[in-house]
């Protein structure tokens, strides 16, 4: 469990990036921080592994104030996946994944073997293991980044827009991969994104941030959709634009799902229709 | 040509003298410039002092420097040490800037992600920043090696033997073949050193090699002093 207690961060140039931020991030759940650019998401994330130290307030991991822990040791126990993967260009894929275990003193053989197994975990072919990052596609690099984040089997995984730099198809693939991994591994994940769809897909708890690291609303995807706290949240989750207020229309012989702007949103999947007699006619 | 054939032993001996005079400055300047270059990047004050000092040092002409050194450090006028120290100073003057530029060229994201993974400042420098600055350092060292080999000849004027002695002797005695032999051997030695550095670079930095074959347009930053 990660707890923020009235955390503020003012950078030396006077920018107040985070103001009086308090939040509990439950263990074994994915908390997603969403907000527009400059709302302090990265700053919040980096305070968890002490890449940034708060100006005031405190952060606890499982009840222990992290300000009392040596940063280098703390970081070696927390997985960190950053935008653009941040791989070391001069190390091969397998060595990149094995970096932190090696820093922690795992024998080289063992670390490499584990790294190869992790490539399987994130769906990368082992034949890529001896390549350098520059010889991989963006999506492959992101996967290596995720594998590296998992390499020390951390309880906590921090992910800063890890899929921001890849195309929508690969992104969807990576998101599914992460959902599967999370089912399996059950980490405490803190995930940063601009993309509310991504947040809804991955998050157990979603934190919507305003400028200056102020919390607009915290809740599950369902809560945010059903009861947006204010107009800001409503427009952020897209509830007001009717993108999510869907209804059925009959087009010829087909039922299609349409949003309130009249835009086609999709079709109903017959194989997943509830068995109850509630036909399309009764759904408004 | 007959002179060359008759004096192969002499040419070989001067070549060895030349190697003995040029290797220490090349190696020493690297070893000294790395911490200085790091220091130059680390603090604003040290940056100004070190980089300006290095620039000024480079502007001092070599012959006077070799003459003045004995008075400053107490070596004998004819000691090869004067040449070695003077050339080490030139090498440092050039490499300090190169090291500092090379470290600057390391991607900030990579540096951050190394810290986030738990590299200490010390291990991050040796295992991440210095290797990634490698291509720039190599470019600098190639300039240093070639210019050191060529500057060693200046020592001949004050009697420190090297391939340069073949020029001075050739001029005094009017043996043109000797002058040409000295010149050719000096250039050959410079090329040899340069080739050795390139080879070492390939071996030590395999990631640049593979990248170059994969994508020919990789930016190789060559930084002038
Ligand atoms: N090192 C720094 N020095 C000064 N100001 C900073 C620094 N890092 C971030 N800031 C400022 O703090 C605010 C929050 O930045 P942060 O990087 O946390 O935003 P973000 O939500 O991650 O944005 P994005 O979505 O664009 O990544 C911004 O106004 C930014 O300019
Ligand atoms: Mg950010």
List the main descriptive attributes of the protein structure presented here.
heterodimer, A: 284 residues, alpha/beta, Rossmann fold, 2 domains, six-stranded mixed sheet, four-stranded antiparallel sheet, 13 strands, 32% helix, globular, B: 225 residues, mainly alpha, MetI-like fold, 10 helices, disordered C terminus, binds adenosine-5'-triphosphate, binds magnesium ion
Polypeptide structure, described:
- The complex is a heterodimer of chains A (284) and B (225).
- With 284 residues, chain A is an alpha/beta fold.
- Chain A folds into 2 domains: 2-236, Rossmann fold, CATH 3.40.50; 241-284, no CATH class.
- Chain A contains 9 helices and 13 strands.
- Chain A has helices at 41-48, 71-76, 93-103, 108-121, 138-150, 168-185, 196-202, 221-226, 231-237, and strands at 2-10, 16-25, 30-35, 56-61, 64-65, 78-81, 156-160, 188-193, 205-210, 214-219, 247-251, 254-258, 264-267.
- In chain A, the strands form 3 sheets. Chain A has a 6-stranded mixed beta sheet, with helices on both faces.
- With 225 residues, chain B is mostly helical.
- The longest helix of chain B is centred in the first third of the chain and has 35 residues, at 8-42.
- Chain B has a single domain (2-208), classed as MetI-like fold, CATH 1.10.3720.10.
- The complex binds adenosine-5'-triphosphate (ATP) and magnesium ion.
- Magnesium ion binds at residues 41-42, 160 of chain A.
């Amino acid at each position: 469990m990660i707890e923020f207690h009235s955390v503020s961060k003012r950078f030396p140039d006077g920018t107040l990036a985070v103001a009086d931020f308090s939040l509990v991030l439950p263990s074994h759940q994915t908390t997603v921080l969403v907000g527009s650019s400059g709302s302090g998401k990265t700053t919040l994330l980096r305070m968890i592994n002490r890449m940034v130290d708060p100006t005031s307030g405190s952060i606890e991991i499982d009840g222990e104030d992290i300000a009392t822990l040596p940063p280098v040791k703390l970081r070696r126990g927390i997985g960190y996946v950053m935008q653009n993967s941040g791989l070391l260009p001069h190390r091969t894929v397998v060595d990149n994944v094995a970096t932190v275990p090696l820093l922690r003193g795992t024998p080289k053989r063992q670390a490499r073997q584990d790294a190869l197994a992790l490539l399987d975990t994130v769906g990368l072919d082992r034949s890529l293991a001896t390549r350098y990052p520059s010889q991989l596609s963006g999506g492959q690099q992101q996967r290596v980044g995720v594998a590296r984040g998992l390499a020390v089997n951390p309880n906590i995984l921090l992910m800063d827009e890890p899929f921001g730099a890849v195309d929508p198809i690969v992104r969807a693939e990576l998101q599914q991969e992460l959902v599967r991994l999370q089912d399996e591994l059950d980490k405490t994940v803190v995930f940063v994104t601009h993309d509310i769809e991504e947040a809804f897909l991955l998050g157990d708890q979603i934190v919507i941030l305003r400028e200056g690291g102020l919390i607009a609303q915290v809740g599950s995807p369902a809560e945010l959709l059903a009861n947006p706290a204010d107009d800001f949240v409503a427009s952020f989750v897209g509830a007001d634009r009717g993108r999510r207020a869907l209804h059925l229309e009959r087009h010829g012989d087909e039922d299609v799902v349409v949003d309130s702007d009249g835009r086609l949103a999709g079709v109903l999947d017959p194989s997943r229709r509830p068995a109850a007699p509630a036909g399309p006619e009764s759904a408004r | 040509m007959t002179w060359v054939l008759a004096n192969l032993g002499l040419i070989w001996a001067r070549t060895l003298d030349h190697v003995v005079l040029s290797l220490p400055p090349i190696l020493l300047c690297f070893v000294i410039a790395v911490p200085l270059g790091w220091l130059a990047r680390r603090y604003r004050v040290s940056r100004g002092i070190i980089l300006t000092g290095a620039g000024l040092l480079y502007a001092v002409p070599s012959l006077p420097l070799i003459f003045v050194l004995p008075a400053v450090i107490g070596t004998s006028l004819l000691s090869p040490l004067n040449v070695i120290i003077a050339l080490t100073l030139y090498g440092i003057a050039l490499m300090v800037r190169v090291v500092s530029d090379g470290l600057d060229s390391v991607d900030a994201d990579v540096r951050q992600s190394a810290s986030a993974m738990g590299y200490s400042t010390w291990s991050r420098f040796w295992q991440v920043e210095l290797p990634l600055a490698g291509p720039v350092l190599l470019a600098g060292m190639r300039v240093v090696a070639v210019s050191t080999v060529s500057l060693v000849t200046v020592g001949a004027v004050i009697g420190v033997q090297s391939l340069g002695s073949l020029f001075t002797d050739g001029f005094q005695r009017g043996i043109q073949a000797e002058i040409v032999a000295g010149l050719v051997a000096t250039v050959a030695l410079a090329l040899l050193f340069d080739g050795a550095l390139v080879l070492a670079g390939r071996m030590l930095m395999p990631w640049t090699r593979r990248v170059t074959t994969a994508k020919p347009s990789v930016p190789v930053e060559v930084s002038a002093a």
